[in-house]
Write a structure and sequence with these properties.
With 585 residues, the chain is an alpha+beta fold. It has four domains: 1-31; 33-186, 2-Layer Sandwich (Beta-Lactamase), CATH 3.30.450.40; 209-376, 2-Layer Sandwich (Beta-Lactamase); 433-585, Heat Shock Protein 90 (2-Layer Sandwich). It has 15 helices and 21 strands. It has helices at 2-30, 38-52, 92-100, 113-116, 163-208, 214-229, 271-277, 309-317, 351-379, 381-399, 403-430, 442-459, 482-499, 530-538, 544-555; strands at 57-63, 69-76, 86-88, 104-106, 128-137, 144-154, 233-239, 245-252, 264-266, 284-285, 289-291, 296-298, 322-330, 333-342, 437-441, 465-467, 477-481, 505-514, 517-525, 559-565, 568-576. The chain has an eight-stranded antiparallel sheet with strand order 9-8-7-14-13-12-11-10, sandwiched between helices. Strands 3-2-1-6-5-4 form a six-stranded antiparallel sheet, sandwiched between helices. α10 (381-399) runs antiparallel to α11. Mean pLDDT is 76; it is low at 80-90, 117-122 and 207-212.
Length: 585
Amino acid sequence: MKIMGYARQLKEIYDRAFLSRLRAELEELKEIDLRLEQKDVLEKATGMVVKFMDADAIALLLCDSESLELTRHGVCRIAGSEGELSVSFRGAVAKEIVHSGKSVVIPDIKSHPDWMSSNVSRIREFNSLLAVPVNVRSMAGDDYSQYGILQIFFKEQHRDFDELEIMHAEILAVHLGELLEKKRLQDAYRINLRKEEILDSLFTQVSIREGVKLKDLFLTLIRELRDCLKVTGCTLFSVCADRRFVRLEAAYPMDITYHAPGYTFTVSHHPYFKAILQEESGYGDYPYERICSSYMLIKDPQKSSLVTRGLKDFARKHSIHSILMVPVRVRGTIRFLMTFYVTDMKPSFLEEEIELLTFFGKEIMKASRLEILDDVIHDFKNPAIAIIGFSKRARKLLESEDLESARKKLTSYLDIVLKETARLQDMVLTMNVTGREEVLDLNKIAASRFRINKEAIREAGLSAIRVEAPVFEPGLMVYCSRFGLERVLDNLLNNATKAVPEQGGNLSMRSYREGDFACLEIVNAGEIPADQIEQVKKGEVKGRGLNIIYRFIQANHGGVDIRVDSGNTIFTVKIPIYQAEAWPL
């Protein structure tokens, strides 16, 4: 009886000591600073657990919701490449732990068939394993959002794991899951604050500037938010409607850019562009890339088969170890790509990071749409003036006695009124600033818009402006949006009209071919200042009209030129001539 009494007394003392120790351990875990990056939080936590369990090494594996792979998120005392664990979710042991929620002990790792065939067999110095489930609750708190395994390794062979030791590990794993849950809640709060920063910066820029272009927004905001977004460098690409070309629109900082802004990439020559633009057919998690609907991550540019030799050299030169591409969609179609360069080698981006970067892209597009609205309102003037002017003419004709002789003119005037009304309707209903690309007769479109502008001049009573008959070289066919081309011509003619001095002067238009380009030249009286000429040539322009022109010309791989001669300003736009054999429809 005395022996039993001593045993109970010793057990009570041991239990009190264990509970006291456990309480201290949990308090130590709570002291981890959750403002640190998640990888640092987990490294600290796993370091504590390996000490608490008197173990030789620990690895925390969490299940990725898309790839269903258990990937390493924190290790302690596993050196070099052996720390890069990745164990299939469908493996027998992993599946048992995650689905049953019960711990598994493996006294002899090397003799266990499932573990012998996995990457863990590379960890040769460890012989015994205690694997316990780790569950992270969702932010709503009503279910688990992520499952994982805490692997606790021992060098001891054929280790005898007692119930108290297993219970100890399970309690620590529960608190590790709670730690991750709190970390995510704090991250979500910080992300919302960062989103507010993005919105504040975004709409401040939109509200104080006229004619803001998407690339200007991107450059301005990325300078302010670079630390918030935690990237080394970034670039903005525009995607042509047919997805054959991608154009580099902006980069920050300028010393970390693959090519200069304005450079056009052929998609078929660059597999990484092709992979993200082909969408669903290429989704998956591969050894060196991860491709999904919201982003494409190149985990290791030097080993990825999608990366060209030139981009590999660029990445090596700037110590870039990960490249993230985020597509920005307009009405469900990818129209822009944002690329972020990271000096850390990342097997994946955290959901919070992806959320913040995609939010950045989407909010920039929303701000850009506000600019589009202002652009469209800006473009209302010419169609409205044409409708008023030709309606007045039609009314005068109806008041004449000989309607039969006026029928042809009346029909022409009403056709213009109908067409311009339809344009206004398109602007209001579709907010479409590009439209469907098609083969167009440049001269025919230009002649129509020149006539509309002539009517606007007449309606405004600008009798001092001498409008000369346009001169066109025949056979200039181009492939672009009719709606976009008409907007460009309206803005060119409107700007030229406003630039004519008060005392009056000439306004003329001509078209001609120059190599593979169809050129449209507009001449107006009055010389533009030399400093403004350089700004226009560089694209550093203010005002909506010129921004609308530049966006269209760049999107269609054209060019702009401006010069002065004998008291006149000559503005020329160049658009590639359509070649049926080179551009199959």
